[in-house]
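The instructor's notes for this session suggest beginning with a concrete chain rather than abstract definitions. Hand out the sequence below and ask the class to guess, before any prediction is shown, which regions might be ordered.
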Amino acid sequence: MDSYRGMDREVLDRAYNNVAAVPDVAEKMADFGRRSTTIYEAVGVKRDLAYGEAASQRIDWIPGPDAGAPTVAFLHGGYWQSLSKEKFAHIATGPLAHGFNVALIEYTLAPEARFGAIVNEIGHAIEFLATHFKEWGADPARLCLAGHSAGGHLAAWHRTHPAVSLVLCISGLYDLEPIRLCYLNEKLDLTPAEVAAYSPEMHIGVGARTLLTVGGAELPELRRQTADYASCLRARGELVEEISAPGCNHFTILETLALPDGAAVEAVVQAFS
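After discussion, reveal the predicted structure:
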């Protein structure tokens, strides 16, 4: 039986089960949903802009108050196989409070799409945004690609895209091998070749300045993945900053972006100042 860092399938299943590790996750997700509904009701959102032909290749554009403002483009989590952009619109509150635009990017989930196809969709979404920034009054030179959990992986993978000027990875996954070896692979069906091809830790090129954060109360494997990725970036001479989030679990960590005074959104503002 395959193992990873001395962990077999049973141990890895626990090591990457974020839902099981947070007792009040249902209440927290319900709160996210209520706050997301408020965003959609209160702001002039452009809903479900198509960046491709597939049903899930859609973006919600939430304009900020100022012309020429930066943009935070957000990629939701769900281990590439669940959840949706609509459940995380509440994260727009923080960037909007600082005058930013916000784009919520949806993508096709596994098993409908294979892993490489999901990764490629995000590239298409970035290119779609880049071609519309001037039309929408956004600064094309200031795009922060942000993502949580699986979205953190997707953001990290695209840090070398020429349209991306800053990356924010929240509780991301940067080495896919343990994902291949645990329960999460039942839908993803990752192969060893796909792990090698799509693990950001193995493909660090010259790219955007990268902000990394992970909750102090998260699963040890999530904290290790972030620490290891930060070390890999530094070893290649890339600009990286780690943002402390003491006491945060895998879901409350999103408040560092969603709250106007959150550490992550303040780091983004500072990076664009």
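Then share the key points. The chain has a mean pLDDT of 97. DSSP finds eleven helices and eight strands in the chain.
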